[in-house]
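pasting for the record
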Amino acid sequence: MLFVTYYFYTLNIFLELAIMKKKIAIISNLSWNLYNFRLSLMFAMRDAGYEVVAIAPYDRYSQKIIDAGFEFHDIKMNAQGINPLEDLRTTYLFYKLFKEVSPDIICQYTIKPNIYGSFVATFLKIKMINNIAGLGTLFIKENAVTKIAKVLYKISQYKADRVFFQNRDDFTFFTDKGIVTTNKCDVLPGSGVDTNRFKPQHKEERVNIRFLLISRMIWEKGIGEYVKAAREVKKSYPNVEFCLLGFLEVENPGAITKNEMDIWVKEGIVNYLGVSDKVEEFIQTADCVVLPSYYREGTPKTLLESGSCGKPIITTDSVGCRNVVDDGINGYLCEPKSWEDLKLKIEMFLALTDEERVKMGIKSREKMIKEFDEKIVINKYLDALTSVL
């Protein structure tokens, strides 16, 4: 009996050590993406006993990942390009890195890792968990490139052990078209939100109402609609502020130029606030957060963070965005690509009493805690890792 007890005790220790030695590679097309959206998950994986390695193109956020204690590997990748020779080179670089790092499992985000990283992982027999975090501009209009992308997704995801989606629309789109099989898929509440970091705080009293849009400055995020609506609203409400926060002149065909932004600012329509790693400080100064996106979103992280801070939200009734708002309860949904409807919803918010605005913010906070807390995402990943490994 003593021998049996000792045997199972030793076996348990052996299994725990085996788990601790498992290496996970977290992969994205931007270090910024890993640092801002995946760092909590990386910490949770490490706390669970896994060795965690980051793979992404090097930028100024790469060092922040290293400073957080994670091994980092640079990979050259044109996130927006569609040059097949460039993508072939990216595939080869994935092969070299996977051979060098030798991960037991890879967790991938964004289209190029999900496709080309998966090709290599299949060849090298590496287990993989992929996250389809929105389909972006590629799936806004059906064209030849979209058709090629669907084929590449179908081939690359065939051997994936688990495929996560960030909204039910994308899940249905992929499964109905037979791109992936339902039994290996699941839906996450976006990237989740740290409800302890993003929480309501006392806001400095102001006479003027402030709207805030947080995003990369690209047309598909509804920046043009926001500016047009702001121009019209300010004719009746000249003291209302419309602010923009986010990267300007990004590598994207729909990027807004500095010159275009300067014209709007000079005209007095909007205030451009630049970029910040402390986005919660800007959210706290807003009365309402707006994202009139018609980009094929996963679930916009900035809306989750704003809702968690107790802010009412105005966003489009479109994929990914509609999940965050219960229309008329914690904000308003507007028609995609319609600055007129956006203007109407902004004016509806302006017509509310202070008490009604506060109540909307409370409902936002409650919704984020119940449906979008990042602990839900982390637990699903840890369960997936246990299952796959």
